[in-house]
Write a structure and sequence with these properties.
Number of helices: 7
Structural class: mainly alpha
Order of helices and strands: HHHHHHH
Distance between the termini: 17 Å
Largest sheet: none
Shape: elongated
Radius of gyration: 16 Å
């Protein structure tokens, strides 16, 4: 966890939140742990808000439709997956053995 925090430039006060954020439901279900899904829901909403605010504040000549398209391009599975790959997040994920064997990482 220390290596990941150094990589992202943020130190979690509560490491349990980071562990939950990295725990796949396949592992959580069999190990009485929380998985990332609820945090993912919250994070997607927060990220969408932050990107929306930035687009609104930085581009007075951008229409609502253009802002929506830009936000959708930024806050989407493909772009977020690219960010995760650059951070090598897959290597930190906590998966069940079955998920690991089927390429879930």
């Amino acid at each position: 966890m220390e290596k990941l925090m150094k990589c992202i430039g943020y130190n979690f006060k509560n490491i349990d939140i980071l562990k939950t954020a990295l725990t796949h439901s396949s592992y959580a279900n069999g190990n009485n742990a929380d998985c990332y899904e609820r945090l993912e829901f919250l994070g997607d909403s927060i990220l969408s808000f932050v990107v929306s605010k930035h687009l609104y504040s930085s581009g007075k000549n951008i229409t609502e439709g253009e802002m929506s398209k830009l936000r959708a391009a930024i806050v989407c599975e493909r772009s977020l997956s690219e960010c995760a790959k650059k951070l090598n997040l897959g290597s930190y994920m906590i998966l069940s053995k079955g998920e690991e064997l089927t390429g879930g990482r």
